[in-house]
Amino acid sequence: MSRLDGPDEPEVISLFLRHIERQGDLPLGDDAGALRFGGLWLVATSDMLIGRTDVPGIMKPEQIGFKVVTMNVSDVVAMGARPIGFLFSLGLPAGTPREYIEGLARGINRGSIFYDVPVLSGDTNEACDLVIDGTAIGTTETPVTRAGARPGDLVCVSGDLGRPLAALMLYERRVTGGWTEPLYEKLLEPKARLDLLDAVKRATAAIDISDGLAKELNTLAEMSGVSIVVREDAVPIGRGVDRAAELLGVDPLALALRSGEEFELLLTISGDDVPEGFTVIGEVREGSGVYVETDGRLEELPPLGWEHLSSHGTR
To answer: Strand 119-126's sheet: what is its strand order?
Structure first.
């Protein structure tokens, strides 16, 4: 059986959920799990990086190490928690150069300092490919889940979108130049939005954008039992994405909707007090599904974006 003949990522998750009876004080299925711990909640996540699928050839070892910390910190922040510790397991192919390993170590150290989160433990082993499995833990008074969106809430997103996917597609065509620098910066040096933690704590629901805006919107809508309508002209498209899209012959909005590993935050907010650093892109309504509104017309938005165990990781 080939890899593509087996179950896809949602099916794998569903298979495990069917058999795991003991879960945390929050049901599995969010950015992170959580346990009540004294007067706080202890939030924990585990996110893995694989060389073949997660590391473009242009990425330096130090950037890889930093990204692993970012991936895990982002999941904790999306739950409204402040990270307090980081752990990792490292799998390396035999013969990996010492300089490469030191670069990974420098990157993890830089991420630890940047997010002010200590490295608590680690493990190493031999593997067929580069594998770094990170774990971040954090604490919060009240976790924010993906299931709290309610009709009438505003849908907000931090930062801008589309740059990582645009850069990856340009890299595959060997396109570089001064105008592409903001695109490659987001691909190679993504940052978790720890600076926006206070905004997450005000949200009714939250998720980080690691698999693409379209997929995360569908996840929020499904888990909250609502529908979401996004205005086409409200989605914040990153600097340089329009030019990249023209060169690539694609729609810039499509890049913004499908671009994964943004590590921006998608929130639903009750009321009209929009947190600084966020753009309102739509609203929560009754019903189900996700829709893009263009000139008063609604078109359903499928969960397109990154997905492991699928062809080239995309759907």
So the answer is: 33-37, 40-50, 131-140, 82-92, 119-126
